[in-house]
Amino acid sequence: MARTLFIKTYGCQMNVYDSARMADVLAPLGYGPVEAADEADLVILNTCHIREKAAEKVFSELGRLKALKDARARQGRPLFLAVGGCVAQAEGEEILARAPQVDLVFGPQTYHRLPEMVAKLERGQGRLLDTDFPPEPKFDHLPAQGAQGPSAFLAIQEGCDKFCTYCVVPYTRGAEYARPAQVILDEARRLVDQGAREITLLGQNVNAWQAEGWSLARLLDALAEIEGLERLRYTTSHPGAMSDDLIGAHRDNPKLMPFLHLPVQSGSDAILRAMNRGHDADDYRRLVDRLRAVRPDLALSSDFIVGFPGESEADFQASLDLIASVGFAQSFSFKYSPRPGTPAAQLPHPVPEAVKAQRLDRLQALIDSQARAHLESCVGCVLPVLLDRPGRHPGQLAGRGPTMQPVHLAAPPSLFGQVVAVRIRESHANSLAGELAA
Ligand code: SAH
Ligand code: SF4
Ligand code: F3S
Questions:
Q1: Quick check: 16 pLDDT over 90?
Q2: Distance of CA 410 to CAs 85, 392, 403, 404, Å?
Q3: DSSP state of 40
Q4: Same fold across 3-130 and 138-376
Q5: For ligand 3, is residue 202 a contact (CB within 6 Å)?
C-alpha cells in the first residue's frame, strides 16, 4: 500500500545523513517521500539537542503538527507523528509526557527498527519509546544506501568519547564506533556506481576512525583507488586526533581536497582547559603550521563558542587573536548554551546574554571578513568545480570548488555531475560567479 513520509531535519550533517537512511529503511514498507507535512501519513522530526534554541524548535513544531493531526483525524486519514534524533534521545520521556500527539519516540541508534515500530503504530498498538543504545550497531541492519547524486555522504564513524564539558553529543550519540573498512569501501563503490564523484566521510569525531589496524589515512588511500571517484573530504575532526599519517595524506592523497574543518572553539588556554578540549591554543597553531607545511593551499574552517562560563574580555580577545593569526576560509560561531546534564552547566560565572551577543557580533565580523577575503582571492583563478546542483537561474548550474567555495555559472545540463574548469569572474558575499574555461 502506498503511503507518504515527510521528514524534517534539524542539526548537523549526521542528522541529514540519518534522515536519508530513515527514508531508505521505510521505503520497503511503501513509504514514499513528500514535500510537506500536510501530504504525509507519517511525519518524522529528526531533532538536534546541541543548543537550547535547537531543542525548543521541536516543541513549537509539535504544537503546529498537533493542529494538523487533529484536522486529519476529523477527515478519517490518520497522521502518525514520530520524534527521532538527539532531543528524542535526551528527553524521550518528557516528549511523550508533554506532547500527547506524539506516537513514537526513537533515538539515533534505533532507527533501523523503524519498520517494526511503524507497523505497531499502524496496528494501533499505542505510543512507543525506543531510545536504547543497542549493542548491535545499527549500520549492520540498514539497507543499501539510496542514490545521493554527485556529492555523497558516507558515515564511517559515530559517537564521541571526548566529553567536551559543554557538549551533549557523547550522551545523545553514545560511545565512538568505527565501521569496518571493507563495508565502507563497498558502500563507496556503490555510491560511485550511482553517480557520486565526491564522497565526504562523516563522523562526529571522524579523524578518530580506526578499524582492524587501518588508519583513516589508509582508508582514504584505498578510497582514492576507486575509479570514477574524483574527490574525498572528511568531517568533523578533533585537533587531538590529527595523526602524522593523516597530516601526510593531505600531501600524498591526490583526491583529498585542500579543505579541513578543524574546530578549535576558543583561543584562550584557560577556556580550552575548562572546556576539556585536551589542547591549548599553541597546540592548535602548531598543528595548522604542520598541515600548511605539507599542503600550503589548505583552507581551514572552525567552530567557535563565545561566552563560555568565566570567559573574560581577555579570553575573548585571545579567540580574536587566534582567528587573526590562523586565517579561516569559513567558520561557524555560537553563543554558549548551557545544556542539561553537561559539566559546564554547573560552572559559576555565566557570561551575561548581552555580552555574549556583543562578542558574537565582533567575532562574526572578523570571520566574515576572512571568508570574503578567501572568496576574493579566487577571482581571476581557474577552479575545478563539481557541478552538483541547479543554479539560481535557468541555464545555470552550481557547485563547489576545492575549498568548498560555492560557484555559479552558465552551463548546459549535460555537464551536471562533472568536475569542470571554471574561470572565476566575481566574488559575492557568500559565493563566486564564473564561466566555463575554454
Ligand atoms: N564533533 C564536532 C561537532 C560538535 S557540535 C566537533 O567537535 O566539532 C558542533 C558545534 O556546536 C561545536 O563544534 C561547538 O562549536 C558547538 N556547540 C556544541 N555544544 C554547544 C553548546 N552547549 N553551546 C554552544 N555551542 C555548542
Ligand atoms: Fe562534542 Fe567535543 Fe565530541 Fe565534538 S569532540 S562532539 S564538541 S564532545
Ligand atoms: Fe545536534 Fe545531535 Fe548533530 S545534538 S549537532 S543532531 S549529533
A1: yes
A2: 39, 10, 21, 19
A3: -
A4: no
A5: no
Q: Which CATH number fits domain 3-130: 3.40.50.720, 3.40.50.12160, 3.30.300.70, 1.10.10.10?
A: 3.40.50.12160
Does pLDDT of 343 surpass 80?
yes
Query: What spacing in Å lies between the alpha carbon of 170 and ligand 2's midpoint?
Result: 7
Instruction: Encode pLDDT of 206-247 as tens digits.
Output: 999 999 999 999 999 999 999 999 999 999 999 999 999 999
Residue ranges of domains in the chain? 3-130, 138-376, 382-436
Protein fold of 138-376: pyruvate-formate lyase- activating enzyme (3.80.30)
Q: Is 257 in the pocket of ligand 3 (CB under 6 A)?
A: no
Q: Mean pLDDT across the stretch 391-416?
A: 96
User: What average pLDDT score do residues 293-320 get?
Assistant: 98
The ligand that comes nearest to the alpha carbon of residue 50 is: 3
Instruction: State whether the beta carbon of 170 lies less than 6 angstroms from ligand 3.
Output: no
Predicted TM-score (pTM) of the model is 0.96
CA distance 232 to 112: 27
CA 17 to chain centre: 8
The pLDDT confidence band at residue 134, using thresholds 50, 70 and 90, is confident
Q: What is the DSSP letter of 140?
A: G
Domain 382-436 belongs to what topology? OB fold (Dihydrolipoamide Acetyltransferase, E2P) (2.40.50)
DSSP-derived secondary structure letter, 143:
P
